[in-house]
Write a structure and sequence with these properties.
The chain is mainly beta. It is built from no helices and ten strands.
């Protein structure tokens, strides 16, 4: 079983404290990414969790800058059933005061692997529209990346 752990590193690349556990599930949890929210001076960590017969799901955890969990782990993807949601990435949008999370998703039997996303408030509330398609096309869409510049669109 794998879990998501963290380690604080100072500006001089000196480790501060020891490793700490971020994910709390008892399954395979992997492909974590972290994004900083400068408005609230905290982090959001997202990863995919093996849900057994229910497939893989996207989970997240908010952390203070000292590594303290802000609430519990929470599910970002809202789909049910035995579909996989994997390889998340995230960004914080200063202008909107919210997070954007995008992942590879195989719930559609026709297009198979598409990219889907979710808006989260700065406090981690799932805002919707729920699991919105962000890119659908022929072939496999996986390993998304996201960037944002104020006054412009997402890339």
């Amino acid at each position: 079983y794998y879990q998501v752990d963290g380690q604080r590193i100072g500006p001089s690349y000196v480790m501060s404290g020891g490793n700490f556990q971020i994910s709390t599930g008892a399954s395979m949890e992997q492909a974590a990414v972290v994004v900083h929210n400068p408005d609230d001076n905290e982090y959001l960590v997202v990863w995919h969790r093996d849900a057994g017969a229910q497939g893989e799901d996207i989970y997240a955890q908010r952390l203070s800058t000292t590594g303290i969990a802000q609430g519990a782990n929470f599910k970002v993807s809202t789909v049910t059933g035995d579909n996989d949601q994997m390889f998340p990435t995230a960004i914080y949008f200063n202008a909107l005061h919210r997070y954007g999370v995008i992942w590879a998703d195989n719930r559609d039997p026709v297009t198979q692997w598409d990219l889907r996303g979710q808006w989260l408030s700065n406090t981690g509330v799932v805002l919707g529209p729920f699991d919105m398609p962000t890119f659908r096309g022929a072939g496999v869409q996986s390993n998304p990346a996201i960037a944002y510049a104020p006054g412009y669109n997402l890339l």
